[in-house]
Protein backbone atom coordinates (compact mmCIF):
# COMPACT_ATOMS: atom_id res chain seq x y z
CA UNK A 1 0.00 0.00 0.00
CA UNK A 2 1.29 3.48 -0.85
CA UNK A 3 2.14 5.97 1.85
CA UNK A 4 3.22 3.54 4.54
CA UNK A 5 6.96 3.82 3.97
CA UNK A 6 8.66 4.61 7.21
CA UNK A 7 5.89 3.72 9.66
CA UNK A 8 7.55 3.27 13.00
CA UNK A 9 5.89 2.65 16.36
CA UNK A 10 7.80 3.51 19.53
CA UNK A 11 6.26 1.30 22.16
CA UNK A 12 6.28 -0.79 25.27
CA UNK A 13 5.08 -4.38 25.21
CA UNK A 14 2.98 -4.06 28.32
CA UNK A 15 1.23 -0.82 27.32
CA UNK A 16 -2.43 -1.05 26.28
CA UNK A 17 -2.03 2.34 24.55
CA UNK A 18 0.70 0.96 22.33
CA UNK A 19 -1.30 -2.16 21.61
CA UNK A 20 -4.24 -0.18 20.26
CA UNK A 21 -2.05 1.69 17.79
CA UNK A 22 -0.64 -1.61 16.52
CA UNK A 23 -4.12 -3.15 16.27
CA UNK A 24 -5.34 -0.06 14.37
CA UNK A 25 -2.49 -0.48 11.88
CA UNK A 26 -3.40 -4.18 11.59
CA UNK A 27 -6.99 -3.23 10.82
CA UNK A 28 -5.73 -1.25 7.84
CA UNK A 29 -3.45 -4.09 6.82
CA UNK A 30 -0.33 -1.94 6.82
CA UNK A 31 3.03 -3.09 8.10
CA UNK A 32 5.10 -1.13 10.56
CA UNK A 33 8.40 -1.26 12.32
CA UNK A 34 8.04 -1.78 16.06
CA UNK A 35 10.68 -0.39 18.43
CA UNK A 36 10.55 -1.29 22.13
CA UNK A 37 11.45 1.60 24.44
CA UNK A 38 13.12 1.35 27.81
CA UNK A 39 11.11 3.82 29.90
CA UNK A 40 13.91 4.06 32.46
CA UNK A 41 16.25 5.11 29.67
CA UNK A 42 14.13 6.76 26.97
CA UNK A 43 15.66 7.04 23.52
CA UNK A 44 16.60 10.37 21.97
CA UNK A 45 14.05 9.61 19.29
CA UNK A 46 11.24 9.28 21.86
CA UNK A 47 12.24 12.45 23.73
CA UNK A 48 12.49 14.37 20.46
CA UNK A 49 9.24 12.93 19.07
CA UNK A 50 7.08 13.42 22.17
CA UNK A 51 8.76 16.28 24.05
CA UNK A 52 5.52 17.22 25.83
CA UNK A 53 4.55 13.89 27.46
CA UNK A 54 7.66 11.79 26.77
CA UNK A 55 5.36 8.76 26.59
CA UNK A 56 4.73 5.84 24.27
CA UNK A 57 3.10 5.21 21.89
CA UNK A 58 4.50 7.48 19.24
CA UNK A 59 3.82 6.78 15.57
CA UNK A 60 6.48 8.16 13.27
CA UNK A 61 5.24 8.48 9.72
CA UNK A 62 7.81 9.57 7.12
CA UNK A 63 9.79 11.21 9.90
CA UNK A 64 6.81 13.05 11.41
CA UNK A 65 5.72 12.11 14.95
CA UNK A 66 2.10 11.70 16.06
CA UNK A 67 1.40 11.24 19.78
CA UNK A 68 -1.45 10.02 22.02
CA UNK A 69 -2.99 6.65 21.19
CA UNK A 70 -6.50 7.91 20.38
CA UNK A 71 -5.13 10.67 18.15
CA UNK A 72 -2.85 8.17 16.42
CA UNK A 73 -5.78 5.80 15.79
CA UNK A 74 -7.75 8.60 14.16
CA UNK A 75 -4.72 9.60 12.08
CA UNK A 76 -4.26 6.02 10.91
CA UNK A 77 -7.96 5.83 10.05
CA UNK A 78 -7.80 9.01 7.96
CA UNK A 79 -4.49 8.18 6.32
CA UNK A 80 -5.19 4.70 5.02
CA UNK A 81 -7.95 3.44 2.81
CA UNK A 82 -9.65 0.19 3.66
CA UNK A 83 -12.04 -0.60 6.44
CA UNK A 84 -12.97 2.36 8.60
CA UNK A 85 -11.96 2.25 12.24
CA UNK A 86 -14.37 4.99 13.29
CA UNK A 87 -17.96 4.72 12.06
CA UNK A 88 -18.75 6.89 9.03
CA UNK A 89 -22.05 8.28 10.35
CA UNK A 90 -21.31 11.50 12.32
CA UNK A 91 -23.60 10.57 15.21
CA UNK A 92 -22.10 7.10 15.49
CA UNK A 93 -18.60 8.61 15.28
CA UNK A 94 -19.41 10.95 18.14
CA UNK A 95 -20.80 8.05 20.16
CA UNK A 96 -17.70 5.94 19.52
CA UNK A 97 -15.46 8.84 20.62
CA UNK A 98 -17.60 9.28 23.72
CA UNK A 99 -17.13 5.64 24.79
CA UNK A 100 -13.42 5.61 23.98
CA UNK A 101 -12.99 8.70 26.16
CA UNK A 102 -15.10 7.05 28.87
CA UNK A 103 -12.87 3.97 28.83
CA UNK A 104 -9.75 6.10 29.23
CA UNK A 105 -11.12 8.72 31.64
CA UNK A 106 -13.24 6.53 33.94
CA UNK A 107 -12.66 2.82 33.49
CA UNK A 108 -8.86 2.97 33.29
CA UNK A 109 -8.29 5.24 36.34
CA UNK A 110 -10.67 3.00 38.32
CA UNK A 111 -8.82 -0.30 37.78
CA UNK A 112 -5.43 1.35 37.85
CA UNK A 113 -6.43 3.02 41.12
CA UNK A 114 -7.32 -0.42 42.46
CA UNK A 115 -3.83 -1.66 41.62
CA UNK A 116 -2.21 1.29 43.32
CA UNK A 117 -4.57 1.45 46.32
CA UNK A 118 -2.83 1.90 49.66
CA UNK A 119 -5.65 0.65 51.88
CA UNK A 120 -8.41 -1.94 51.79
CA UNK A 121 -11.02 0.86 51.82
CA UNK A 122 -9.46 2.60 48.86
CA UNK A 123 -9.19 -0.69 47.00
CA UNK A 124 -12.84 -1.56 47.66
CA UNK A 125 -13.88 1.87 46.41
CA UNK A 126 -11.89 1.46 43.19
CA UNK A 127 -13.24 -2.06 42.63
CA UNK A 128 -16.75 -0.65 42.88
CA UNK A 129 -15.88 2.17 40.45
CA UNK A 130 -14.39 -0.35 38.03
CA UNK A 131 -17.45 -2.61 38.10
CA UNK A 132 -19.79 0.35 37.71
CA UNK A 133 -17.82 1.69 34.72
CA UNK A 134 -17.81 -1.71 33.01
CA UNK A 135 -21.59 -1.94 33.51
CA UNK A 136 -21.94 1.31 31.59
CA UNK A 137 -19.89 -0.22 28.80
CA UNK A 138 -22.07 -3.34 28.83
CA UNK A 139 -25.12 -1.14 28.25
CA UNK A 140 -23.22 0.82 25.60
CA UNK A 141 -22.45 -2.41 23.77
CA UNK A 142 -26.12 -3.38 23.75
CA UNK A 143 -27.01 0.00 22.25
CA UNK A 144 -24.05 0.32 19.88
CA UNK A 145 -24.46 -3.09 18.41
CA UNK A 146 -28.23 -2.84 18.16
CA UNK A 147 -28.38 -5.98 20.26
CA UNK A 148 -27.09 -8.31 17.56
CA UNK A 149 -23.79 -7.10 16.11
CA UNK A 150 -20.59 -8.94 16.97
CA UNK A 151 -18.60 -5.80 17.83
CA UNK A 152 -19.05 -2.18 18.89
CA UNK A 153 -18.00 -1.45 15.31
CA UNK A 154 -20.59 -3.80 13.76
CA UNK A 155 -19.48 -6.91 11.91
CA UNK A 156 -15.81 -6.15 12.41
CA UNK A 157 -13.78 -4.44 15.09
CA UNK A 158 -13.68 -0.65 15.24
CA UNK A 159 -12.59 2.22 17.46
CA UNK A 160 -14.29 1.29 20.74
CA UNK A 161 -13.46 -2.41 20.26
CA UNK A 162 -9.76 -1.63 19.96
CA UNK A 163 -9.77 0.83 22.86
CA UNK A 164 -11.53 -1.53 25.28
CA UNK A 165 -9.89 -4.60 23.76
CA UNK A 166 -6.45 -3.17 24.54
CA UNK A 167 -7.28 -3.52 28.26
CA UNK A 168 -8.22 -7.21 28.14
CA UNK A 169 -4.79 -8.67 28.91
CA UNK A 170 -4.56 -6.33 31.90
CA UNK A 171 -8.02 -7.47 33.05
CA UNK A 172 -6.70 -11.02 32.91
CA UNK A 173 -3.68 -9.96 34.99
CA UNK A 174 -6.05 -8.30 37.50
CA UNK A 175 -8.00 -11.56 37.66
CA UNK A 176 -4.86 -13.53 38.42
CA UNK A 177 -3.56 -11.15 41.07
CA UNK A 178 -6.78 -10.12 42.81
CA UNK A 179 -9.15 -12.92 41.81
CA UNK A 180 -11.44 -10.21 40.47
CA UNK A 181 -13.29 -10.58 37.18
CA UNK A 182 -13.92 -7.20 35.58
CA UNK A 183 -15.74 -8.87 32.70
CA UNK A 184 -17.52 -12.20 33.17
CA UNK A 185 -20.53 -14.12 31.88
CA UNK A 186 -22.76 -13.43 34.87
CA UNK A 187 -22.05 -9.71 35.39
CA UNK A 188 -21.40 -8.58 31.83
CA UNK A 189 -22.65 -11.36 29.54
CA UNK A 190 -22.51 -9.28 26.36
CA UNK A 191 -18.96 -8.08 26.98
CA UNK A 192 -17.85 -11.57 28.02
CA UNK A 193 -18.97 -12.95 24.65
CA UNK A 194 -17.56 -9.87 22.88
CA UNK A 195 -14.16 -10.32 24.55
CA UNK A 196 -13.94 -13.90 23.29
CA UNK A 197 -14.75 -12.79 19.77
CA UNK A 198 -12.34 -9.87 20.02
CA UNK A 199 -9.27 -11.87 20.99
CA UNK A 200 -10.06 -14.29 18.18
CA UNK A 201 -9.82 -11.66 15.43
CA UNK A 202 -6.70 -11.54 13.24
CA UNK A 203 -6.19 -7.88 14.11
CA UNK A 204 -5.94 -8.72 17.81
CA UNK A 205 -4.25 -12.11 17.46
CA UNK A 206 -1.51 -11.32 15.01
CA UNK A 207 -0.21 -8.19 16.63
CA UNK A 208 3.33 -7.05 17.35
CA UNK A 209 4.14 -6.69 20.20
CA UNK A 210 2.24 -9.67 21.65
CA UNK A 211 0.18 -8.71 24.75
CA UNK A 212 1.87 -10.47 27.64
CA UNK A 213 -0.30 -11.28 30.67
CA UNK A 214 2.67 -12.51 32.74
CA UNK A 215 4.42 -9.21 32.18
CA UNK A 216 1.26 -7.30 33.22
CA UNK A 217 1.11 -9.46 36.38
CA UNK A 218 4.72 -8.50 37.13
CA UNK A 219 3.86 -4.83 36.64
CA UNK A 220 0.91 -5.11 39.03
CA UNK A 221 3.06 -6.82 41.61
CA UNK A 222 5.59 -4.01 41.34
CA UNK A 223 3.00 -1.27 41.48
CA UNK A 224 0.58 -2.41 44.09
CA UNK A 225 0.86 -2.05 47.80
CA UNK A 226 1.84 -5.42 49.27
CA UNK A 227 -1.24 -7.62 48.76
CA UNK A 228 -0.82 -9.31 52.13
CA UNK A 229 -0.84 -5.97 53.96
CA UNK A 230 -4.15 -5.06 52.38
CA UNK A 231 -5.97 -8.37 52.17
CA UNK A 232 -5.39 -9.06 55.87
CA UNK A 233 -7.13 -5.81 56.85
N1 LIG B 1 -2.80 9.08 27.03
C1 LIG B 1 -1.63 8.41 26.54
C2 LIG B 1 -1.11 7.46 27.59
C3 LIG B 1 0.22 6.83 27.23
C4 LIG B 1 0.96 6.29 28.45
O1 LIG B 1 0.52 6.41 29.59
N2 LIG B 1 2.12 5.67 28.20
C5 LIG B 1 2.94 5.16 29.27
C6 LIG B 1 3.21 3.68 29.09
S1 LIG B 1 1.73 2.73 29.30
C7 LIG B 1 4.30 5.85 29.21
O2 LIG B 1 4.90 6.00 28.17
N3 LIG B 1 4.82 6.28 30.36
C8 LIG B 1 6.14 6.85 30.42
C9 LIG B 1 6.25 7.93 31.45
O3 LIG B 1 5.22 8.30 32.04
O4 LIG B 1 7.36 8.42 31.66
C10 LIG B 1 -2.01 7.67 25.25
O5 LIG B 1 -3.20 7.36 25.09
O6 LIG B 1 -1.16 7.45 24.40
C1 LIG C 1 20.55 3.85 27.58
O1 LIG C 1 20.28 3.73 26.21
C2 LIG C 1 21.39 3.91 25.36
C3 LIG C 1 20.93 3.79 23.93
O2 LIG C 1 19.73 4.50 23.69
C4 LIG C 1 22.47 2.90 25.68
O3 LIG C 1 23.59 3.12 24.88
C5 LIG C 1 22.81 2.95 27.14
O4 LIG C 1 23.71 1.90 27.46
C6 LIG C 1 21.57 2.82 28.01
N1 LIG C 1 21.93 3.02 29.42
C7 LIG C 1 21.47 2.19 30.36
C8 LIG C 1 21.88 2.58 31.76
O5 LIG C 1 20.78 1.22 30.14
C1 LIG D 1 -18.50 -12.18 38.04
O1 LIG D 1 -17.88 -10.97 38.44
C2 LIG D 1 -18.49 -10.35 39.54
C3 LIG D 1 -17.78 -9.03 39.74
O2 LIG D 1 -16.39 -9.19 39.77
C4 LIG D 1 -18.41 -11.27 40.74
O3 LIG D 1 -19.07 -10.68 41.86
C5 LIG D 1 -19.06 -12.60 40.42
O4 LIG D 1 -18.87 -13.50 41.47
C6 LIG D 1 -18.47 -13.19 39.15
N1 LIG D 1 -19.24 -14.36 38.75
C7 LIG D 1 -18.69 -15.54 38.56
C8 LIG D 1 -19.61 -16.63 38.14
O5 LIG D 1 -17.50 -15.73 38.73
UniProtKB/TrEMBL annotation:
Domain GST N-terminal: 5-84
Keyword terms: Cytoplasm, Transferase
Record-linked Gene3D superfamilies: 1.20.1050.10, Glutaredoxin
InterPro entries, per the entry: Glutathione-S-Trfase_C-like, Glutathione-S-Trfase_C_sf, Glutathione_S-Trfase, Glutathione_S-Trfase_N, GST_C_Tau, GST_UstS-like_C, Omega/Tau-like, Thioredoxin-like_sf
Biological process (GO), any one: toxin catabolic process
Record field: catalytic activity: RX + glutathione = an S-substituted glutathione + a halide anion + H(+)
Alphabetized GO MF terms: glutathione transferase activity
Top EC class for this record: transferase
Domain GST C-terminal as annotated: residue spans: 89-230
Subcellular location: Cytoplasm, Cytosol
Domain of life: Eukaryota
EC number: 2.5.1.18
Cellular component GO terms held in the UniProt record: cytosol
Record function comment: Is involved in the conjugation of reduced glutathione to a wide number of exogenous and endogenous hydrophobic electrophiles.
Protein family according to the UniProt entry: Belongs to the GST superfamily. Tau family.
Protein name: Glutathione S-transferase
Amino acid sequence: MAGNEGLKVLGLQVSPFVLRVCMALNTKGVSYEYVEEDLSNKSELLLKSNPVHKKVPVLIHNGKPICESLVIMQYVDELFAGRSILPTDPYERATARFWAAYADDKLLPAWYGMVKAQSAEERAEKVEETLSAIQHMEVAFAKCSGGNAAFFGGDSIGYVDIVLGSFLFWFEAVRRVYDLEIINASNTPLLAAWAERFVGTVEAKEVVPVPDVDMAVQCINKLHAPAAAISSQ
